Every structure is written in structure tokens, then in C-alpha cells.
Amino acid sequence: MSETAPRIVEIEAIDCRFEPVPWAFAQDNRAAIAEHWQAVVAHKPETFNGKVLLMHRWEIVGGLFVGAYLMTDYASFLAWRDFGFPDRAKWNCFSMAALQSADGAFLLGEMADHTSNAGAIYFAAGTPDPSDLAGDTVDLAASVMREMAEETGLSAAEVTVGPGWTAVFHGSRIALIRNVHSPLGAAELKRRIEGFLAGDPKPELSRMHVVSRRADILAERMPAFQCAYLEHRLAG
């Protein structure tokens, strides 16, 4: 799918809701989705077909990002992604923790070999799922902190969350990125997280990468929307 360059919008707050609606792509392509899933599992046997949330509408009102999600299974979501996002009226909208050290560097994790995106380098993030629901609210602020704790071992008490969000739009992806500050310097923070990873029997990440200048951005292993965010922040 041809995509324009990522677009960055600073927003003050988000209001995302769970509003279940049917998804025609999943219903109309069951055979193709099942065949694709068999190939995925053959390559990564531990991949789990759980439930995930997919955005079906959004708008920005003033400084507020407002959106609504439907629920689907991971097999359908993955097929939609890998088939090139054929339903353009849906979006993979997720939150990310842009972890920043006391000396201004960003720390990103390299996905472990057993994950579906092995070798790719990301901020802590995850596709929204039912655990992110609080009533009919999709609590992406809580999701940011949970994903960061699961992937890096850092608790909410060890960091300071910055105000607002940075939304990065790129094709069918919407990354809602929150700046998270650590009082540790980059080298110490990297050691702290990699020590946690070494003690985890099956970590999501294999190691950490420090990005303190534009030359540290590995565009061949980072998604374009994340590169755009890093360029934006490091330029400032």
C-alpha cells in the first residue's frame, strides 16, 4: 500500500471507547484468514489467536483525540495487516511509551526471536486488547504503563509521565505516543532493563538500543512512524 509520509499532531488528551460493530473484512475473508493463520503458526508456533481491538472511527476535536474500537481476533487483524490493510476505514491505533533517560536519550527494545516482529526495534507498546477495557473506555494511558512494565521491568513509580500525547498518523497506523522520563542516565537505564531481561525466562525483548542523536535511528529496523517521532523529538 502506498503511504504518504507520517504526520505528527500534538494532542492534549485522548478519549477512546469500545463500540462493537461487525467487521466485514473478517466475515467475508474467513477462508483466506484461516489459511494465512496456518502459515503464521507454522513459522511461529507459539503465536496466540487472542482478541484484540481495532479502531473504526476517530477525530480530533480541539486538543482531544476521540476514537472508537471494535473487537476481533488476532488472526483477522494479522491478515488485514499482512494483506496490505485492504479495509481503509479501520486503523491499528495503539499507545507507546517513549522512554527517555535523564540525559535526554531514548531507549527502545529489540523484539526477541520468538515474537512475530523479531529483530524490529520499538518503544514499549502493544495492540490494544480486552485487558485495556475499563467499562466502555479503552484505557490507553494504563496500557502504556502496563506494556512498559511487562517489557522493561520498570514500574510507574520509577518514571514520570509527561503531559499530553504525540499522535503519529501513517497510513492505517495511528501511534499515540506518551513521553515517559526516567531519573537514570541512558547507560544505567540500559543496564537496568537488560538485567531484567536476563532474568526473564521468556522476555519480549532481546536487548535495548539507545537513540541520543539522529544518526542512532535505525530506519531499516524501525517503523517509519517511529522514526518520524524520533526525528521530531531530537530536532527539538
Q: Which structural traits does this protein have?
A:
3-stranded mixed beta sheet, 6 helices, Nucleoside Triphosphate Pyrophosphohydrolase, 236 residues, single chain
Notes on the structure:
The chain is of the alpha+beta class. It has a single domain, classed as Nucleoside Triphosphate Pyrophosphohydrolase (Alpha-Beta Complex), CATH 3.90.79.10. Helix content is 28%, strand content 34%. The protein has helices at residues 24-28, 30-43, 74-82, 140-152, 186-199, 224-235; strands at residues 7-11, 13-18, 51-61, 64-73, 92-100, 106-111, 121-122, 124-126, 133-134, 137-138, 160-161, 165-170, 173-181, 205-211. The strands form three sheets. Strands 1, 5, 6, 7, 8, 11, 12, 13 and 14 form a nine-stranded mixed beta sheet that branches. Strand 5 (92-100) and strand 6 form a beta hairpin. Helix 2 packs across helix 3 (74-82). It starts with 6 loop residues before the first strand and ends with a helix. The model has no long low-confidence stretch (mean pLDDT 95). InterPro entries: NUDIX_hydrolase-like_dom_sf (IPR015797). This is 8-oxo-dGTP pyrophosphatase MutT (NUDIX family).
Percentage of residues assigned to helices: 25-40%
Number of domains: 1
Low-confidence stretches: none
Mean pLDDT: 95
